[in-house]
Design brief:
Largest sheet: none
Oligomer: single chain
Structural class: mainly alpha
Shape: globular
Order of helices and strands: HHHHHHHHH
Length: 183
Protein backbone atom coordinates (compact mmCIF):
# COMPACT_ATOMS: atom_id res chain seq x y z
CA UNK A 1 0.00 0.00 0.00
CA UNK A 2 1.54 3.33 -0.96
CA UNK A 3 1.92 5.85 1.80
CA UNK A 4 0.93 9.35 0.85
CA UNK A 5 2.48 12.46 2.28
CA UNK A 6 0.47 15.08 4.12
CA UNK A 7 0.36 17.05 0.87
CA UNK A 8 -1.58 14.23 -0.78
CA UNK A 9 -4.60 14.68 1.48
CA UNK A 10 -7.78 15.95 -0.13
CA UNK A 11 -8.56 19.19 1.71
CA UNK A 12 -12.18 18.61 2.64
CA UNK A 13 -12.46 19.22 6.36
CA UNK A 14 -10.62 21.61 8.65
CA UNK A 15 -8.63 18.67 10.01
CA UNK A 16 -7.41 17.57 6.60
CA UNK A 17 -6.86 21.18 5.55
CA UNK A 18 -4.48 21.56 8.50
CA UNK A 19 -2.80 18.30 7.52
CA UNK A 20 -2.33 19.70 4.02
CA UNK A 21 -0.72 22.73 5.57
CA UNK A 22 1.88 20.43 7.08
CA UNK A 23 0.55 20.34 10.63
CA UNK A 24 0.97 16.59 10.90
CA UNK A 25 0.41 16.62 14.65
CA UNK A 26 -3.31 16.67 13.88
CA UNK A 27 -3.08 13.67 11.57
CA UNK A 28 -4.15 10.30 12.97
CA UNK A 29 -1.23 8.60 14.67
CA UNK A 30 -1.35 5.60 12.35
CA UNK A 31 -0.94 7.86 9.30
CA UNK A 32 2.27 9.26 10.76
CA UNK A 33 3.42 5.74 11.67
CA UNK A 34 2.64 4.41 8.18
CA UNK A 35 4.77 7.19 6.71
CA UNK A 36 7.63 5.40 8.46
CA UNK A 37 6.65 2.15 6.74
CA UNK A 38 5.72 -1.18 8.25
CA UNK A 39 8.29 -0.85 11.02
CA UNK A 40 6.72 2.47 11.99
CA UNK A 41 3.29 0.88 12.24
CA UNK A 42 4.69 -1.98 14.32
CA UNK A 43 6.49 0.44 16.63
CA UNK A 44 3.43 2.64 17.00
CA UNK A 45 1.20 -0.23 18.13
CA UNK A 46 3.82 -2.13 20.15
CA UNK A 47 2.23 -3.25 23.40
CA UNK A 48 -1.05 -1.44 22.76
CA UNK A 49 -4.44 -2.99 23.35
CA UNK A 50 -5.99 -4.25 20.08
CA UNK A 51 -8.79 -1.67 20.35
CA UNK A 52 -6.18 0.94 19.37
CA UNK A 53 -6.09 -0.56 15.85
CA UNK A 54 -9.86 -0.12 15.54
CA UNK A 55 -9.72 3.51 16.66
CA UNK A 56 -6.95 4.36 14.21
CA UNK A 57 -8.79 2.49 11.43
CA UNK A 58 -11.86 4.63 12.15
CA UNK A 59 -9.71 7.78 12.01
CA UNK A 60 -8.19 6.77 8.69
CA UNK A 61 -11.56 5.85 7.23
CA UNK A 62 -13.03 9.18 8.32
CA UNK A 63 -10.33 11.18 6.51
CA UNK A 64 -10.72 9.20 3.29
CA UNK A 65 -7.84 6.74 3.65
CA UNK A 66 -10.14 3.75 3.29
CA UNK A 67 -7.63 1.22 1.99
CA UNK A 68 -5.27 1.88 4.89
CA UNK A 69 -8.24 1.70 7.25
CA UNK A 70 -9.14 -1.75 5.88
CA UNK A 71 -5.59 -2.99 6.49
CA UNK A 72 -5.49 -1.65 10.04
CA UNK A 73 -8.99 -2.91 10.82
CA UNK A 74 -8.16 -6.47 9.74
CA UNK A 75 -4.83 -6.40 11.57
CA UNK A 76 -6.69 -5.20 14.65
CA UNK A 77 -9.32 -7.88 14.19
CA UNK A 78 -6.68 -10.60 14.00
CA UNK A 79 -4.97 -9.31 17.12
CA UNK A 80 -8.17 -8.67 19.06
CA UNK A 81 -9.50 -12.16 18.30
CA UNK A 82 -6.16 -13.62 19.36
CA UNK A 83 -6.29 -11.62 22.61
CA UNK A 84 -9.79 -12.91 23.36
CA UNK A 85 -8.95 -16.53 22.49
CA UNK A 86 -5.77 -16.40 24.58
CA UNK A 87 -7.70 -15.07 27.58
CA UNK A 88 -11.05 -16.90 27.60
CA UNK A 89 -11.86 -15.95 31.19
CA UNK A 90 -12.09 -12.20 30.62
CA UNK A 91 -15.29 -10.67 32.03
CA UNK A 92 -17.95 -10.74 29.30
CA UNK A 93 -18.81 -7.09 29.91
CA UNK A 94 -15.20 -6.03 29.28
CA UNK A 95 -13.05 -6.81 26.26
CA UNK A 96 -15.48 -9.28 24.62
CA UNK A 97 -18.25 -6.66 24.74
CA UNK A 98 -15.91 -3.93 23.51
CA UNK A 99 -14.82 -6.16 20.62
CA UNK A 100 -18.43 -6.75 19.60
CA UNK A 101 -19.22 -3.05 19.83
CA UNK A 102 -16.15 -1.96 17.85
CA UNK A 103 -16.78 -4.65 15.23
CA UNK A 104 -20.27 -3.28 14.69
CA UNK A 105 -19.63 0.46 14.93
CA UNK A 106 -16.26 0.60 13.16
CA UNK A 107 -16.18 -2.72 11.32
CA UNK A 108 -19.51 -2.43 9.55
CA UNK A 109 -18.69 0.67 7.45
CA UNK A 110 -15.14 -0.52 6.80
CA UNK A 111 -16.37 -3.94 5.67
CA UNK A 112 -19.07 -2.33 3.53
CA UNK A 113 -16.31 -0.45 1.74
CA UNK A 114 -13.81 -3.36 1.69
CA UNK A 115 -16.18 -5.90 0.16
CA UNK A 116 -16.78 -3.50 -2.74
CA UNK A 117 -13.41 -4.56 -4.19
CA UNK A 118 -12.96 -8.28 -3.62
CA UNK A 119 -9.48 -8.51 -5.15
CA UNK A 120 -8.19 -5.61 -3.05
CA UNK A 121 -9.71 -7.13 0.08
CA UNK A 122 -8.09 -10.49 -0.65
CA UNK A 123 -4.71 -8.80 -1.16
CA UNK A 124 -5.14 -6.76 2.02
CA UNK A 125 -5.89 -9.84 4.12
CA UNK A 126 -2.79 -11.54 2.66
CA UNK A 127 -0.77 -8.41 3.56
CA UNK A 128 -2.18 -8.44 7.10
CA UNK A 129 -1.12 -12.07 7.56
CA UNK A 130 2.37 -11.31 6.18
CA UNK A 131 2.71 -8.21 8.37
CA UNK A 132 1.65 -10.18 11.44
CA UNK A 133 4.41 -12.73 10.79
CA UNK A 134 7.03 -10.04 10.18
CA UNK A 135 5.97 -7.90 13.16
CA UNK A 136 4.51 -10.14 15.88
CA UNK A 137 1.97 -8.76 18.32
CA UNK A 138 3.53 -7.57 21.57
CA UNK A 139 0.24 -7.25 23.46
CA UNK A 140 -0.68 -10.94 23.11
CA UNK A 141 2.64 -12.66 22.64
CA UNK A 142 2.70 -15.35 19.94
CA UNK A 143 5.28 -17.28 21.96
CA UNK A 144 3.07 -17.23 25.05
CA UNK A 145 -0.19 -17.96 23.16
CA UNK A 146 0.81 -19.83 19.97
CA UNK A 147 -2.42 -21.85 19.74
CA UNK A 148 -4.60 -18.74 19.92
CA UNK A 149 -2.59 -17.03 17.20
CA UNK A 150 -2.50 -20.12 14.98
CA UNK A 151 -6.26 -20.62 15.23
CA UNK A 152 -7.00 -17.00 14.37
CA UNK A 153 -4.50 -16.88 11.51
CA UNK A 154 -6.11 -20.02 10.10
CA UNK A 155 -9.52 -18.40 10.48
CA UNK A 156 -8.39 -15.29 8.61
CA UNK A 157 -6.84 -17.40 5.87
CA UNK A 158 -10.10 -19.34 5.58
CA UNK A 159 -11.96 -16.04 5.25
CA UNK A 160 -9.55 -14.94 2.50
CA UNK A 161 -10.11 -18.16 0.55
CA UNK A 162 -13.88 -17.98 1.05
CA UNK A 163 -13.95 -14.41 -0.27
CA UNK A 164 -12.16 -15.54 -3.43
CA UNK A 165 -14.40 -18.58 -3.89
CA UNK A 166 -17.60 -16.60 -3.34
CA UNK A 167 -16.61 -13.40 -5.13
CA UNK A 168 -19.43 -13.55 -7.70
CA UNK A 169 -22.04 -14.25 -5.04
CA UNK A 170 -20.72 -11.40 -2.88
CA UNK A 171 -20.85 -8.98 -5.82
CA UNK A 172 -24.38 -10.05 -6.70
CA UNK A 173 -25.53 -9.67 -3.10
CA UNK A 174 -24.08 -6.17 -3.00
CA UNK A 175 -25.81 -5.28 -6.27
CA UNK A 176 -29.11 -6.59 -4.91
CA UNK A 177 -28.66 -4.44 -1.80
CA UNK A 178 -27.77 -1.31 -3.76
CA UNK A 179 -24.11 -1.34 -2.73
CA UNK A 180 -21.41 -0.49 -5.28
CA UNK A 181 -18.86 -2.97 -6.59
CA UNK A 182 -15.57 -1.30 -7.46
CA UNK A 183 -14.19 -4.26 -9.42
Amino acid sequence: MPIASAGDFACISRRTLLACAGLTALMPQAVRARQSGAAGVAAHFAGKHPSAYYQEAANLFRIGRQDEAVFLFYLGQLRYRTHLRARPNLPQGGDPALFASLSESIGRPINEYAFGDISALERTIAQVLAFDLAFPDTFTSPTEFPDALRANREGMETLRRRIIAEADRIREGRRANGLPNRN
